[in-house]
């Protein structure tokens, strides 16, 4: 008999009628012959109401009590949903996180799932019940109630689907699927039939609130197909699976996090170990940083800029303060009126000109780019909050995301073409791990790379577009791009990496660009290598970048450039030290490496 996990988000259980409608959906599935586990979130905005109540009591509530409070939201809904099912003459039992055996670590408000015991659920299902499980919550070793972080019910649902070996995991929500961007922000957004785990992971962590990114980590690890669909209709929604909708389209989605903050730590001595010290202090607070850019100035001092969600600004500034003196930094600046606009696509890595197309779209819309970072399947630009809506619209239009790609495939076509890969061994190996443990799939090194840096890049719209169009015309393949924020003189620096064999040609183009736009100088050097750590959950496991930096600092290796994504962390270093560094990193991560 097949088993289905159905998750109903807050909007889908917001009132009595919606609760009854969710109950009917579950009963219908049971009567169609499935065993049904429901995962339910707090009604409507109840979690926000509870947060607000806590903030009226005091500024800094104990984390344990906060989780005790927030978990009550889900407890209300599961009881009401079970009652609704009873009233419709079907059998249901509601269970809290603790009762479904959801064991987590003790990081209150950001707990990670360690294990789930399924016996009780299986027994209740055998007895003909619909099991109604509370999302978003678990218990630690001492039976303290923990919560998984905002949006965590998706993670509960996918994790349950994984351990129960469910045939389907349906996420019922107030949209009828995953769109090319948030349809509330952009009406022309298009619903996609299929999106890949990798794309959804990036989109979710870059602002697509429709799914919790950790739930996609689970789905990818265990190969759980997710069906995102509407609570209010029966139309087919979007399948999140291993494959992408198109195999050619460079960009498949755009996302925006409107509420970002940029922090710049100024004048850090440019010696090995400094970035490690800074990022270790921030990682210890479990803050996931993004868009890390280091600008090395002429005086041997570096300005390190990065972004964090605005809600984490206070914690991050406090963490920096605790190490500022030790770092030898001359100051810290921040801007909390910035937004991050990103494009994501699995096919991007194999194509040239995608970055310059995005920069051109922003330039034509008059949007100034404050920072840029790229990784293998995403490009992010930091813009002022005021220009963010315009920026999102411009990139969505530039990549024609409102149109179905000519080679788009439906889920049924993809399924029919799938080979019968033997994934069982992998799944068994993963199941033996702590469920949300870090999983690394590879650590590799690419040498024969070169870096080009332009200093004194004017901070105005259109420069990045012009630069990368000129580089593209010269047919130079650019790998990493970072544009930093220069706190001192109002200009910025742009660095990019190319193959060493393209260095001379790149420098020639860079000099022409510098002359055209009155930039301060151009520097370029070969003899660098890129170390790549690939896996699942690299950004949410904030310790990965820290450990990587520690390994490099141990050999007195300076990190020249870094980028992070959900799938990879890349560090650019001196090629002479690359082999030794790769070995050290492999040893340090041995436990997590598949
Ligand atoms: N790319 C996207 N596709 C679909 N919805 C998105 C996307 N990005 C953001 N969203 C937003 O996510 C919302 C659904 O998530 P959420 O409100 O958390 O639902 P639930 O309460 O069901 O968990 C949608 O209403 C939509 O505005
Ligand atoms: N109630 C929690 C958990 C959750 O996942 O909610 P939703 O499914 O409504 O996003 C929250 O608001 O964060």
Automatic annotation (TrEMBL):
InterPro entries, A to Z: AceGlu_kinase-like_sf (IPR036393), ACT-like_dom_sf (IPR045865), ACT_Aspartokinase (IPR054352), ACT_dom (IPR002912), AKii-LysC-BS (IPR041740), Asp/Glu/Uridylate_kinase (IPR001048), Asp_kin_monofn (IPR005260), Asp_kinase (IPR001341)
A Gene Ontology term for the protein's cellular component: cytosol
Enzyme class, UniProt record, top EC level: transferase
GO molecular function: aspartate kinase activity; ATP binding
GO biological process entries: homoserine biosynthetic process; lysine biosynthetic process via diaminopimelate; threonine biosynthetic process
CDD domains: AAK_AKii-LysC-BS (cd04261), ACT_AK-LysC-DapG-like_2 (cd04923), ACT_AKii-LysC-BS-like_1 (cd04913)
Substrates-to-products reaction catalysed: L-aspartate + ATP = 4-phospho-L-aspartate + ADP
Family note: Belongs to the aspartokinase family.
Full protein name: aspartate kinase
Gene name for this UniProt entry: lysC
């Amino acid at each position: 008999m097949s088993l289905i996990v159905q998750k109903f988000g807050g909007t889908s259980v917001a009132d009595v009628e919606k609760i009854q409608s969710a109950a009917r959906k579950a009963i219908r599935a049971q009567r169609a012959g499935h065993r049904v586990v429901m995962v339910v979130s707090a009604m409507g905005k109840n979690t926000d109401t509870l947060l607000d109540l806590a903030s009226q009591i005091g500024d800094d509530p104990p984390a344990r009590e906060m989780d005790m409070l927030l978990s009550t939201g889900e407890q209300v809904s599961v009881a009401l949903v079970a009652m609704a099912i009873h009233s419709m003459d079907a059998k249901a039992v509601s269970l809290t996180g603790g009762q479904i055996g959801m064991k987590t670590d003790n990081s209150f408000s950001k707990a990670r799932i360690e294990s789930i015991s399924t016996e009780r659920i299986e027994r209740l299902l055998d007895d003909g019940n619909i099991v109604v499980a509370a999302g978003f919550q678990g218990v630690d070793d001492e039976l303290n109630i923990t919560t998984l972080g905002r949006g965590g019910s998706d993670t509960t649902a996918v994790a349950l689907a994984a351990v129960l070996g469910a045939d389907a995991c349906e996420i019922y929500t107030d949209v009828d699927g995953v769109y090319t961007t948030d349809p509330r922000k952009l009406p022309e957004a298009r619903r996609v039939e299929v999106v890949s785990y990798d794309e959804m992971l990036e989109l979710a962590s870059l602002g697509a609130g429709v799914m919790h990114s950790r739930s996609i980590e689970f789905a990818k690890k265990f190969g759980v197909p997710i069906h995102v669909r509407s609570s209010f209709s029966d139309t087919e929604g979007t399948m999140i699976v291993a494959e992408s909708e198109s195999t050619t389209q460079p960009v498949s989605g755009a996302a925006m996090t409107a509420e970002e903050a940029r922090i710049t730590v100024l004048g850090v001595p440019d010696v090995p170990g400094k970035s490690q010290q800074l990022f270790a202090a921030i990682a210890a607070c479990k803050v996931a940083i993004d868009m890390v850019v280091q600008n090395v100035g002429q005086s041997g001092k570096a300005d390190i800029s990065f972004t964090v969600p605005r809600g984490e600004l206070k914690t991050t500034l406090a963490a920096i303060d605790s190490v500022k003196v030790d770092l030898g930094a001359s100051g810290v600046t921040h801007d909390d009126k910035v937004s991050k606009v990103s494009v994501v696509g699995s096919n991007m890595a194999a194509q040239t000109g995608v970055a310059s197309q995005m920069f051109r779209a922003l330039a034509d819309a008059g949007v100034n780019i404050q920072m840029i970072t790229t990784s293998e399947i995403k490009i992010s630009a930091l813009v002022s909050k005021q220009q963010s809506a315009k920026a999102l619209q411009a990139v969505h239009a530039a990549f024609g995301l409102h149109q179905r790609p000519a080679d788009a495939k439906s889920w049924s076509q993809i399924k029919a073409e799938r080979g019968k890969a033997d994934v069982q061994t992998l799944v068994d190996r993963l199941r033996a791990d702590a469920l949300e443990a870090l999983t690394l799939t590879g650590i590799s090194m690419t040498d024969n790379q070169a870096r080009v840096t332009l200093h004194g890049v004017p901070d105005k719209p259109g420069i990045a577009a012009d630069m990368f169009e000129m580089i593209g015309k010269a047919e130079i393949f650019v790998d990493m791009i970072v544009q930093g924020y220069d706190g001192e003189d109002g200009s910025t620096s742009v660095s990019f990496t190319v193959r060493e064999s393209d260095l001379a040609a790149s420098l020639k183009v860079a000099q022409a660009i510098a002359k055209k736009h009155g930039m301060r100088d151009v520097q370029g050097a070969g003899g660098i290598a890129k170390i790549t750590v690939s896996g699942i959950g690299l950004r949410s496991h904030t310790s990965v970048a820290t450990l990587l930096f520690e390994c490099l600092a141990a050999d007195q290796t300076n990190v020249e450039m870094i980028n992070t994504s959900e799938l990879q962390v890349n560090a650019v270093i001196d090629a002479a030290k690359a082999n030794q560094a790769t070995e050290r990193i492999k040893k340090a991560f041995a436990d997590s490496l598949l």
